[in-house]
Amino acid sequence: MKAIINTDASNTISKIDNRIYGSFIEQLGRAVYTGIYQPAHSEADEEGFRKDVIKAVKSLHVPLIRYPGGNFLSQYKWEDGIGPKDQRPTRLDIAWRELETNQFGLHEFMHWSKKVGAVPNMAVNLGTRGIQEAADLVEYCNFPSGTKLSDLRVKNGDPKPFAIKTWCLGNEMDGPWEIGTKTASEYAHLANETAKAMKQVDDSIELVACGSSSLDNPTFGTWEETVLDECYDNVDYLSLHRYYGYYGDDDPTELDNFLAKNEDLDQFISGVVAMCDAVQARKRSSKQINLSFDEWNVWYHSNDADTKIKPWQVGPHLLEDVYNFEDALLVGSLLMTLLKHADRVKIACLAQLVNVIAPIMTDTDGGVWLQSIYYPFMQMATYGHGVVLNSSVDVPTYNSRQFKNVPLMDSVTIYNKDANELIVFAENKSQRENADLSINPTGFDIDHIVEATQFYGYDVKADNRDGKMAIRPLTSVELTGENISAKLEPLSWNMIRMA
Length: 499
Ligand code: AHR
Description:
The protein is α/β, with parallel strands linked by helices and 499 residues long. The protein has two domains: 118 residues, Immunoglobulin-like (Sandwich); 367 residues, Glycosidases (TIM Barrel), CATH 3.20.20. The chain is 25% helix and 25% strand. It contains eleven helices and 26 strands. An eight-stranded parallel beta barrel has the order 3-4-7-8-9-10-11-12, surrounded by six helices. The longest helix is centred in the middle third of the chain and has 22 residues. Bound molecules: alpha-L-arabinofuranose (AHR).
């Protein structure tokens, strides 16, 4: 198969907001306890954070981390996680039916996120709590000092304000599973009043309102419209959540369908953008609402195992999906799809980061291992900076069970002016054919290949528990004049950096 990418420096989609490479830590399962925080582990630092995990997170180059949930959020009291650890209460986490010891809380998260080089995307509980508790949390975190709550932060060891900029107004408030789920109009009113109060405390913050927690929720569409109608002037982003699974092991063509699920993500984003813009037009507003895709990933492997977990444990093995090679290919395509919407998707969070549906896993008594999905994400988060180009891509397409006209090679082209680099991420979705790729760049001064890599050659069901998966050099890449050619193996993830 032939694949041609024609790309022109003057034809751009958008500058990339680096927060599109964000992730998520929820107080759930082993994300925190025996994940990022394990004081008794040989790798623990002076604050109890695992240094091996910090190293793996830093190598992933995640710039923003959402916290503390997730479903956990909608029943959480942030005050339980501050102050002397021996005085913090153990509580029932009634969202996940775990025990929460609160040994890790707000200050620990702020210290840990600094150590991994990320900024927080903090969330306030609008399930069981409301306006006052949210405003109190902003005061505690962001007010310099001289008030009861800001002085309490100082007393608890952090004299400088946390200066948290981005805040989520609740989590999945449309979901029937959520503690304190709301109708669209109930949520819209509470979110708007909470937004007003939080911005009264600190008018430099920006706020994310809950959109639909899935494209499949029956209220999708009317939810967005109702929420934006009421909150438009006081919020900055609308959230989207979406998880994908592989549901058809007995069907030999299901892999083609699974690898095309980024088409669904694309439609979801386009639909929500259209809804935001319809409300903007109706309101005759000059303000544009952007998107925070603050939960996305593959999630299905652990579903059965999770039904067998005994309730009321600390740090149970919940949502521990072990990802295989086909998952890595889909995650690559999903992130490319987010980038192709970089004009509107300003924040996105791979859900999640450690142990819970995560690229990074820990052995409680051992080390860290990296899942298959770590690799495409890490390459894009490390090198995918600058502007996304509006390239024209000429490639054959295929039809799958759910999707029509799916390009056999998915790609995104990025120009990093600061590094003077043109970067192509490309995935060959064909199970049988090579993609003979030609890249024709116009308006760039390219004279060498900085790096070309390929991730391929694994059984689609293979995972990385043995740690053998690796990114290898792409040896077939050639530069002739300004034109670049490369042979992309069937089912391969590729990165070509040129300068
Ligand atoms: O990320 C796991 C869960 O998925 C989150 O707690 C929730 O927001 C979503 O349903």
